[in-house]
Predict the structure.
Amino acid sequence: MQISADKVVYFHYTLRNDAGEVLDSSDGMDPLPYIHGHANIVPGLEKELEGLSVGDKKSVKVPPEEGYGERQEDATQEVPFDEFPEEIPREEGLQIFAESPDGQHFPLWITEVKENSVVLDANHPLAGETLHFDVEIVEVRAADEEELAHGHVHGPGGHEH
Ligand code: ZN
């Protein structure tokens, strides 16, 4: 079975930056599942996996505009602790969600925790990076109706609910 729209794909991956440093990897873990054609993974990787089958390996280079976007300047803000929600851990690297005045939810990342404030950045930590993926396809199956309705994979490695 080949990878095409609405297929559930399980794959192993190693992600490196331009300098060859490993940023992320499924090495030693279960393969990562996603539903093809549902924007579960970055667009530049998804389009290169189209048509592959179980056992196929591929190296994919993804430019920032097809990855996590270009890095935007002036996208940081410093928020004093007394204006920062108490229930959110003050932890560098943590992704949080903020709500704009028109009710849209958007992600922010905590990039620095200072003595009395946190620094938030609207850039994804990998924004501006060219991504180098080495992938191996482990399993391809049809998504079931519920998975398609939810837009994500259920079961091991996916959503459990
Ligand atoms: Zn679900």
